[in-house]
């Protein structure tokens, strides 16, 4: 079976790890990964979502902290701070910088990000193929109250999403194209899964790349989404601030309606909601999306694997 997953960073990574645990050796999983958080910093190309997934699937992620490499040190970051360059509020770990140097070096050789990602990930035995949604530099910027704008990373990490956002802009998206393999992975998939990732700044920027929505609309596979919202809360992080900015309630049914039914011009055939949100099911069904009520918390390997299994089962009906 071919499974294609649209994914952001940490939430998507946890889901992919669980999914990998339940597939059979003949199955192929491809993750189409958001690049909207990517940026240039002190000469390095940083790709947070691609790296979160890579480290998590490689077993090299820091479970305690929730992001970055395990056993990380920050000596280089301290030097950059002393020189007064970079973003003092955005720490790059030393091991992580090794990844960024490699990526930047390969991009400098003229390779597109998708090829660079294939080379970087080949070091690890991930069991999942990672493709950036696009090879183009399409960065998410936040337009804040007062009209100013900043890179998403500055709004999220420096300001902890505390400045009211008016809207999000995918800078450069109109001229972008899906990376090689993206449309093919959507068209060839038996099951397409929208991971429990941030709908606004992880999945939204993927869907905004010209050609991707159309590919989903025409895909012969079943599109199953997993709610990142449980009991009206975002589980981990601050994604509610993003939903509020685009006028979507932080609720499992509101996010389903935001994505919309594929039969009515949206992207979903089925939507997984948590048992605590069972009361949302009728509203989702009324919107033309099959609702499946299952446990959505990924608190360990077992619950993450069960969610992977449930997502695949939902594709069957
Ligand atoms: P980011 O790019 O690192 O922000 O990560 P993603 O966009 O992939 O995922 C972030 C989202 O994952 C959060 O907004 C949460 O709503 C969601 N999330 C985190 N943990 C869980 C979980 O255990 N279950 C579910 N259903 N969603 C989760
Ligand atoms: Ca992200």
Major sheet size, sense and barrel closure: 7 strands, parallel
Q: Which ligands appear in the coordinates? A: guanosine-5'-diphosphate, calcium ion
- Regarding quaternary structure, what we see is single chain
The overall pLDDT average reads 97
How many domain modules? 1
Helix content: 25-40%
Unreliable sequence segments: none
Radius of gyration: 19 Å
Let me know the CATH homologous superfamily: CofD-like domains
Total beta strands: 12
Spell the H/E element sequence. EHEEEHHHHEEEHEHEHHEHHEHEH
CATH architecture: 3-Layer(aba) Sandwich
Per CATH, the class reads: Alpha Beta
User: Roughly what fraction of the amino acids lie in strands?
Assistant: 15-25%
**How would you write the strand order of the largest sheet?**
5-2-1-9-10-11-12
Helix vs. strand class: alpha/beta
How many helical elements? 13
Distance between the termini: 16 Å
CATH fold descriptor: Rossmann fold
Overall, the morphology is globular
Q: What attributes characterize this protein structure?
A:
317 residues, Rossmann fold, 13 helices, 17% strand, binds guanosine-5'-diphosphate, binds calcium ion
Protein described:
The structure is a single chain. The protein is α/β, with parallel strands linked by helices and 317 residues long. It has a single domain (2-138, 172-316), classed as CofD-like domains (Rossmann fold, 3-Layer(aba) Sandwich). It contains 13 helices and 12 strands. Strands 5-2-1-9-10-11-12 form a 7-stranded parallel β-sheet, with helices on both faces. The chain has a 3-stranded antiparallel β-sheet with strand order 7-6-8. A two-stranded antiparallel sheet has the order 3-4. The radius of gyration is 19 Å and the shape is globular. The chain binds guanosine-5'-diphosphate and calcium ion. Calcium ion is lined by residues 8-9, 34, 37, 48-49, 202.
């Amino acid at each position: 079976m071919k499974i294609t997953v649209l994914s952001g960073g940490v939430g998507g990574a946890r889901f992919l790890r669980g999914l990998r645990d339940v597939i059979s050796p003949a199955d192929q999983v491809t993750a189409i990964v958001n690049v909207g958080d990517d940026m240039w910093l002190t000469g390095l190309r940083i790709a947070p979502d691609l790296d979160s997934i890579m480290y998590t699937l490689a077993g090299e992620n820091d479970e305690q902290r929730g992001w970055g490499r395990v056993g990380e040190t920050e000596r280089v970051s301290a030097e950059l701070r002393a020189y007064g360059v970079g973003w003092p509020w955005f720490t790059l770990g030393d091991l992580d910088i090794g990844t960024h140097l490699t990526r930047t070096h390969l991009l400098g050789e003229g390779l597109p990000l998708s090829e660079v990602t294939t080379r970087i990930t080949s070091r690890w035995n991930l069991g999942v193929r990672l493709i950036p949604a696009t090879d183009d530099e399409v960065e998410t910027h936040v337009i804040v109250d007062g009209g100013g704008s900043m890179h998403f990373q500055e709004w999220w990490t420096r300001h902890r999403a505390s400045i009211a956002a008016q809207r999000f802009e995918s800078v450069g998206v109109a001229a972008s194209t899906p990376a090689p393999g993206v449309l093919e992975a959507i068209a060839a998939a038996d099951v397409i899964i929208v991971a429990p990732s941030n709908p606004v700044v992880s999945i939204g920027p993927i869907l905004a790349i010209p050609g991707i929505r159309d590919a989903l609309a025409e895909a012969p596979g079943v599109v199953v989404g997993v709610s990142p919202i449980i009991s009206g809360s975002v589980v981990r992080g601050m994604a509610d601030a993003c939903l509020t900015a685009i006028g979507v309630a932080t609720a499992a049914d509101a996010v389903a309606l935001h994505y919309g039914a594929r039969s009515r011009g949206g992207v979903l055939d089925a939507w997984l909601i948590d048992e605590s949100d069972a009361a949302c099911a009728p509203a989702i069904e009324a919107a033309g999306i099959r609702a499946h009520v299952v446990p959505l918390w990924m608190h360990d390997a077992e619950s993450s694997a069960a969610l992977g299994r449930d997502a695949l089962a939902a594709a069957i009906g």
